[in-house]
Task: inverse folding
């Protein structure tokens, strides 16, 4: 008898909660985010998520979206793993009912998510960090965008850094065995050989192994001048750096964007002093980056020298612009609006001027969005025009050195 | 280069061997593949991290405390989970151990986070012998010595003590052991305790050589099983030998094939062994 009563109460509670969530759902506009909290890119996860949350805060503080509705972000942890990423995207689309997603970070996750979930489901996907050249040529019906430039550019910058600035003739490359690693590796090899250099080894590695000594031994075989490492910090990058140093295989390195995190120097500061790396960065000019830095630090404290925090903000903001322009949350409408709303010679909108953006959209004006990572403009393939920065390790910290523009 | 690879193989192999001894005994006595073994190994390594880094105790003390705590967790797992399920199909026990593995791994994630951890942030420069002919770190010498001591201790335990002999008897034939008056329940608890200590040691040594990550043990689980099958299920000596063979052949294989395919070597050996001699090198005949 008692059990039965509990059951009845439970049923009532369940219906009440269902109907309440139904009521709330009407008042919010949902955007999904696919940010890794664990796995290889875990060290970027929290901060890129903060980037998206900051955009959400600005939009909601300035009257919300689509006539006063609140913007709601639903995050799913991709674990930097393609399978979990696809599952997560599926959940966002079918359970949470989103039609626009910011993410994923790793190209190795973004591409399968696009191919198997978002493109067939007519969901707009904007990646704030996937740099693989493969994304450019993906058959995506225009549903896939990114707020970072392709690695075909980063590869050129990294190879030129090695051959021109650092005068290396022989280079060994170790890269993570996924779309990101392969794409960047190919771009670097092509440019470095064009520069007259020799690639002595180009070795793919499987993430999350405890020892990379055999890979390193193979890479060091023909005595290259330096090791160019394409990896993420937490699923192999740091291990490879430490084992390369510990076993005396390499003492000179060039890093790419996946390793632009202060964690890589912990305990090995003196050995990595003066090493260089590359990463997408904000376009010079415009005061978006500065405004972003101030807003971020007011909200979350000091901003770490990691990439993709600003591009995550931009991806969220631009999606919101497109939803506002489309006047609905329909995937196809958002896709089309993304192409229409942004223009190089539109009216300038800064990252904290959501109200102004809404007015401009209402008036049918085009917008030049001075984003946190510089002006955001998409080309035909949905890639952002962008810049690659060269960074340097100085006194154990990561400092930005110079910027190369496309 | 071949000598260097051999040395790397012996180091990896002795770590695998330590983990495989316990796995093999459990497999032999309780008749199920204990899939949480790898994560128990990770747990041991993180316990040592707790004592050594977070509580700043000396390494030897952290090692002993972590080994004891891991043994305790193994015994608790036995009481809470496996003892009840053992009466049913061994497949059910096996699946439940996969569940236990996931629980342990996520507890580790919860407490220590997903980032890589190190017992010592600073790196150690190797001792270079014969003009780069052989490089070995001090840590690796410590690993080899500790592994050797533990293996000798296991040998003495299994051959000289009543409990050790009972364990071997049960791994050989549990019914016969029971008839001769061995208290099987007690021996099972001690088997878990010993496995816990050895796997914790394997995890700590692995992390000592490289670093800690929540998936370190899970990723080593399949080489562990390969070592057990190669040596013969239920045979602790076979497991030691199997571990060394797997470790050495994985490292040596990079002379001929790309390092990316290293994990495949363990499976190739395992599959070949299953086809040619399913009972393993030192195992009893399969009925």
Result:
């Amino acid at each position: 008898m008692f059990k039965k009563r509990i059951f009845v109460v439970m049923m009532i509670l369940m219906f009440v909660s269902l109907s309440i969530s139904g009521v709330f759902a009407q008042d919010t506009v949902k955007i999904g985010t696919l940010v890794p909290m664990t796995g290889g890119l875990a060290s970027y996860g929290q901060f890129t998520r903060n980037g998206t949350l900051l955009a959400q805060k600005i939009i909601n503080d300035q009257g919300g979206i689509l006539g006063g509705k609140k913007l709601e972000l639903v995050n799913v942890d991709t674990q930097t793993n393609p399978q979990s990423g696809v599952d997560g995207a599926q959940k966002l689309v079918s359970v949470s009912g989103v039609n626009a997603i910011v993410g994923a970070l790793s190209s190795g996750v973004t591409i399968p998510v696009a191919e198997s979930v978002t493109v067939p489901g007519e969901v707009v996907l904007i990646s704030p960090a996937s740099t693989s050249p493969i994304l450019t040529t993906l058959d995506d019906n225009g549903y896939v965008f990114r707020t970072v430039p392709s690695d075909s550019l980063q590869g050129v910058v990294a190879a030129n850094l090695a051959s021109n600035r650092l005068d290396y003739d022989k280079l060994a490359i170790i890269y993570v065995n996924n779309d990101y690693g392969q794409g960047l590796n190919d771009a670097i090899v092509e440019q470095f050989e064009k520069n007259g250099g020799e690639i002595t080894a180009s070795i793919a590695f499987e993430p999350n192994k405890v020892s990379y000594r055999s890979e390193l031994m193979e890479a060091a075989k023909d005595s290259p001048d330096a090791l160019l490492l394409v990896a993420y910090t937490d699923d192999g990058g740091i291990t490879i750096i430490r084992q390369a140093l510990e076993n005396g295989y390499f003492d000179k390195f060039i890093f790419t964007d996946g390793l632009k995190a202060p964690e890589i120097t912990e305990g090995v500061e003196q050995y990595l002093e003066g090493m260089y790396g590359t990463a997408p960065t904000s376009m010079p000019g415009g005061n978006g980056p500065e405004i972003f830095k101030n807003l971020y630090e007011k909200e979350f404290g000091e901003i770490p020298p990691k990439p993709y925090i600003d591009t995550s903000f931009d991806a969220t903001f631009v999606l919101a612009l497109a939803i506002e322009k489309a006047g609905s949350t329909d995937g196809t409408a958002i896709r089309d609006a993304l192409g229409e709303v942004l223009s190089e010679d539109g009216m300038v909108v800064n990252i904290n001027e959501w109200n102004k953006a809404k007015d401009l959209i209402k008036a049918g004006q085009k917008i030049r969005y001075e984003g946190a990572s510089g002006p955001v403009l998409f080309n035909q393939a949905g890639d952002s025009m962008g810049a690659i920065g060269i960074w340097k390790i100085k006194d154990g910290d990561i400092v930005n050195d110079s910027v190369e523009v496309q | 280069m071949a000598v260097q690879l051999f040395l790397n193989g012996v180091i990896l192999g002795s770590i695998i061997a330590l983990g495989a001894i316990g796995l093999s005994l459990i497999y032999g006595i309780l008749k199920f593949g204990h899939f949480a073994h790898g994560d128990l190994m990770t747990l041991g390594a993180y316990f040592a991290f707790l004592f050594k880094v977070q509580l700043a105790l000396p390494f030897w003390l952290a090692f002993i405390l972590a080994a004891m705590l891991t043994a305790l967790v193994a015994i608790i797992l036995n009481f809470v989970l496996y003892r009840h399920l053992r009466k049913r199909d061994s497949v059910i026990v096996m699946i439940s151990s996969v569940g236990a593995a996931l629980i342990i791994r996520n507890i580790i994630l919860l407490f220590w986070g997903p980032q890589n951890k190190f017992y010592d942030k600073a790196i150690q420069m190797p001792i270079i012998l014969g003009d780069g002919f052989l490089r070995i770190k001090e840590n690796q010498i410590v690993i080899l010595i500790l592994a050797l001591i533990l293996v000798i201790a296991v040998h003495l335990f299994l051959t000289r003590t009543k409990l050790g002999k009972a364990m071997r008897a049960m791994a050989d034939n549990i019914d016969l052991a029971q008839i001769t008056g061995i208290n099987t329940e007690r021996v099972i608890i001690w088997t878990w305790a010993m496995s816990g200590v050895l796997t914790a040691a394997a995890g700590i040594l692995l992390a000592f050589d490289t670093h800690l990550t929540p998936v370190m043990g899970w990723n080593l689980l399949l080489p562990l099983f390969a070592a057990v099958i190669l040596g013969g299920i239920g045979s602790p000596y076979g497991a030691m030998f199997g571990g060394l063979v797997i470790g050495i052949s994985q490292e040596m294989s990079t002379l001929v094939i790309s390092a990316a395919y290293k994990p495949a070597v363990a499976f190739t050996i395992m599959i070949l062994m299953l086809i040619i001699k399913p009972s393993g090198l030192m195992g009893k005949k399969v009925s």
